[in-house]
Design brief:
Number of helices of chain A: 9
Oligomer: heterodimer
Number of strands of chain B: 1
Structural class of chain B: mainly alpha
Radius of gyration of chain B: 37 Å
Number of helices of chain B: 5
Distance between the termini of chain B: 35 Å
Shape of chain B: elongated
CATH class of chain A: Mainly Alpha
Strand content of chain B: under 5%
Order of helices and strands of chain A: EHHHHHHHHH
Radius of gyration of chain A: 19 Å
Helix content of chain B: over 70%
Number of domains of chain A: 1
Shape of chain A: elongated
Largest sheet of chain A: none
Strand content of chain A: under 5%
Order of helices and strands of chain B: HHEHHH
């Protein structure tokens, strides 16, 4: 059964700590399922967003987010309250998505679950894209060529405002490795963006039948 | 998302060549525009269902293990008994005589046990202090409760435990 989400909530902060979080965590560690459900409610968007950005597909993201919470649920008694819960949770999510990628070796980065997903990407002009509000597809297109860990690091940095130290902790990397991966990713994305723009421009010219357009 | 923070990030990362820096700024703007993807409504309800399914699977697995171990032990007992019985099969009369002998012996032991027990019951209450009896009774109750709790833990559904 498909669970296609991808509703956008740009107004909300990426990670907002709930004042009841410590209480829910303590109760969940005592085996209180309702307290854990409150944690799921509070963190479903950040976890889903990370999975969606990592996997690029609504259904896969739903599965991955559910599995992340299931793993957290099973391991909640071993959770160290000194550690930030969101970091712990997103670390589980990113590692799961990295494993999924390696296992499946996804050949394409499908965006078929977006409302306009049936239309081939290259057939849409930049104007149409803007009109359809498809900038997010471009982001997904750009992310698809990064390696799993580079992608995870970039998402944590630019969607969740994580520090280098937090990313390093989440992905079991050193801080210098994180900096190096982010630098490489930025170069790569900027290069791809430039290339994408020139391709779109060329498509526009072909579409209008004039090379001088 | 926090716009000034994103700008800070953007300028923080300005160690790219000039032509790429402009493109990178566009990428950051694009990320900002993409925002947070949210799951379809009812995510936590689906999680509850998933937990319930997982728990049911776990209980079924435990039940199969329990059944398997019991079947294995029962087979072992049958095998041992079989090994003892098979050699006597060619001579069923000898087996019958042996069974009757064993039965008679058990009855005799039982009678002796009853008579010794009866004598002890007559003499022990006077010899053993009442506090000892109370301790023995309490210990027996404790062991019985422990036994029942253990059985419940391994055989009944786990309730709300994680």
């Amino acid at each position: 059964m498909p669970y296609i989400g991808v509703e956008r909530s740009t107004e909300e902060p990426a990670l907002q700590t709930n004042e009841n979080e410590a209480l829910w965590l303590a109760q969940a560690q005592e085996g209180d399922d309702e307290a854990f459900a409150s944690l799921v409610e509070a963190y479903q968007v950040p976890v889903y967003n990370l999975c969606y950005r990592m996997l690029g597909n609504g259904n896969d993201a739903e599965d991955a987010a559910q599995e992340t919470f299931m793993r957290a649920y099973k391991a909640i008694k071993r959770y160290d309250p000194k550690r930030k819960f969101s970091t712990w949770l997103l670390s589980i999510a990113s590692n799961y998505c990295i494993d999924q990628h390696r296992r499946r070796k996804l050949p394409t980065f499908s965006i078929e679950d977006t409302p306009t997903g049936d239309v081939p990407e290259k057939a849409i002009s930049m104007d149409d894209r803007l009109a359809l509000g498809e900038e997010r597809s471009q982001v997904q297109d750009l992310l698809k060529n990064l390696s799993e860990k580079d992608r995870a690091a970039l998402i944590m940095r630019y969607w969740y405002d994580y520090s280098y130290e937090e990313i390093a902790e989440s992905l079991s990397l050193t801080v210098s490795a994180v900096k190096s991966r982010l630098h490489r990713s930025r170069r790569e994305l900027a290069g791809e963006w430039t290339e994408l723009q020139s391709q779109t421009l060329a498509a526009e010219r072909t579409h209008h039948g004039s090379p001088a357009f | 998302m926090d716009h000034p923070l994103f700008e800070d990030r953007m300028h923080d990362d300005d160690n790219l060549p000039e032509e790429l820096q402009a493109a990178w700024e566009q990428v950051v703007a694009d990320i900002q525009l993409a925002g947070m993807a949210a799951p379809a409504p009812g995510f936590s309800d689906r999680f509850r269902v998933r937990v319930a399914e997982q728990r049911a699977r776990e209980e079924r697995r435990q039940a199969w293990w329990f059944l398997g171990i019991n079947l294995f032990l029962a087979s072992l007992v049958l095998l041992v008994l079989g090994l003892r019985i098979v050699p006597t099969l060619p001579a069923p009369s000898a087996l019958l005589v042996s069974w009757v002998g064993t039965f008679t012996q058990i009855i005799t032991w039982f009678e002796v046990l009853i008579s010794v027990g009866g004598s002890l019951l007559k003499t022990l209450p006077g010899l053993v202090p009442p506090s000892w009896w109370a301790s023995i009774l309490a210990a027996s109750i404790g062991l019985a409760i422990l036994w029942i709790a253990t059985l419940r833990q391994y055989t009944l559904p786990q309730g709300a435990q994680a």
